[in-house]
Fold this sequence. Notes:
The chain contains 5 helices and no strands. By secondary structure, the protein is mostly helical.
Amino acid sequence: MAELLKYRKRNIIHILAWIVLLLVYTIFEYSEGRSITQNLVYRVAIGAAVFYVNYSALVPNLLLKKKNAFYLLSLILLVGVTYLTITAVFPIETNNNQELSKSRFMAIVIFNLVLIVIGTIIRVYEQWIENDKIKTEIVAQKNKTELEALKNQLNPHFLFNSLNSIYSLTVKKSNDAPEAVIMLSILMRYMLYKANDDEV
């Protein structure tokens, strides 16, 4: 249940972030005097695709597995395919203007690189948190196991020492022997049935 709530919360944050990005992009386009069209939504959708290919596939399968060269090659290929897709789907008349073509290329590449860097940072941070949680659980489990082992060693020693004390009382024909047997019985009952409680 906690895991499901965690994923829901993450999904809501992602959706809100994309809505904010779309609004910022819309305001920027409007302030530049450009008309707001469906192309804007499609561009943000392509950006989201780049983000999630990197976030969900490339980072966990390549970067986090120390395959850095393959990861860099995959990023170059991803940005290249994205650029070709955008220029094919959203052609702009440049009239062979090299400066305009170059500035458009740089804008697309920089936008996608920003999304890739953000996706990489988020995914690496999430993995770091997950690893830290696993390490904490391992340490807690180890401490619990060590405590159980210590208890298992302590119980026989305690029993044998108590029996030796009672034996010496019986040899001396001490009147304290019956009380010692009762006390040992109470302690052994406690150790068998109550010693595992969270509070003592």
